[in-house]
Write a structure and sequence with these properties.
Elements (H helix, E strand, L loop, with lengths): L10 H23 L4 H4 L2 H13 L4 H17 L24 H9 L4 H12 L4 H5 L6 E2 L4 E4 L12 E4 L2 H14 L11 E2 L2 E2 L2 H16 L5 H14 L4 H8 L4 H4 L7 H10 L6
Antiparallel strand pairs: 1-2, 2-3, 4-5
Helix pairs in contact: 1-4, 3-4, 5-6, 6-8, 6-10
């Protein structure tokens, strides 16, 4: 059976998370009851039994929550109401996302010799781009005069399916200018901004570029999404409101952005010093 994806759920979330966990749940139901009968499969009692087994297997609270919401999502598509009561799902601890310092970002950029790879890292950081957004960019989406890049489809609810211009710094403009001179000198059958071995660059290639650069320059294993996290944290520390960061990142929910609202001890000390209180 094929299911229609909700416009509020991104392709990556649907395929990699919700679709995966629903397939696991459906297989478990068939192993328990011999067949997948929606009336039983979407009952609170049966779903909770499966979630309990996941917990017993050592699954993290965040994983159990994702699995639960995946089943509820498909239940709603089939016309069944599946609600979780207070205490049904384990609490998920909110932590500050993995990041590096702003200085490390620019060391990473400056230590990357290839113009394409340098432009990828600078643009991903400066505009807090997702992997999917970066690889979808075309040459015409970059406006060097306005210092903006046009992302044609953002994930956020307010901008879903609509283009959004995101500003980048003068430093990134110079890096892109250098790269575009090379890019436009290369004949290609695609308008893609970043080229790989077979035309438009793919996600896995970008992942490898960032990871290898991190290991070579900083001695750290860095995922592309860390650049996005870092940009959000830097903007918060420079005084941006959570709502402004939410719009910049293209988040669907403010709850996601609230991860960046957490103030670290060093920031608390600085804020006390700003009002004239000194400690230590």
């Amino acid at each position: 059976m094929r299911y229609k994806r909700s416009p509020m759920v991104s392709d990556s979330t649907f395929e990699r998370a919700y679709g995966y966990w629903f397939r696991r749940y459906a297989a478990w139901v068939r192993s328990q009851f011999g067949a997948f009968e929606p009336e039983a499969a979407y009952s609170h009692e049966v779903v909770m039994k499966w979630l309990s087994e996941l917990a017993a297997q050592g699954c993290k609270p965040s994983t159990i929550n994702t699995a639960a919401h995946a089943v509820r999502y498909f239940a709603e598509l089939e016309g069944y109401e599946l609600e979780f009561r207070r205490g049904d799902l384990p609490p998920v601890k909110t932590t500050v996302p993995e990041s590096i310092s702003e200085d490390e970002v620019w060391r990473l950029v400056e230590g990357t010799p290839d113009p394409r790879d340098r432009a990828i890292i600078a643009l991903m950081y400066d505009c807090a781009l997702r992997l999917s957004e970066l690889v979808s960019l075309n040459v015409e989406d970059v406006d060097l005069e306005d210092c903006t890049v046009l992302v044609r489809e953002r994930k956020g609810a307010e901008t879903y399916g609509l283009p959004q211009k995101i500003p980048f710094s003068e430093k990134t403009r110079r890096i892109l200018e250098e790269y575009l001179r090379l890019r436009l000198s290369v004949p290609a059958d695609t308008d893609a901004l970043f080229l790989g071995d077979k035309g438009r660059i793919d996600r896995s290639t970008v992942y490898r570029i960032v990871r290898k650069a991190g290991e070579r320059v900083l001695g750290k294993k860095i995922r592309p999404h860390v650049l996005r996290h870092t940009r959000a944290i830097v903007l918060r520390r420079k005084g941006w409101l959570v709502e402004d960061v939410k719009d910049f990142l293209g988040h669907i929910s403010s709850k996601t952005t609230m991860r960046y609202a957490r103030v670290e001890p060093s920031d608390l000390k600085r804020k006390l010093e700003e009002i004239g209180e000194r400690h230590g």
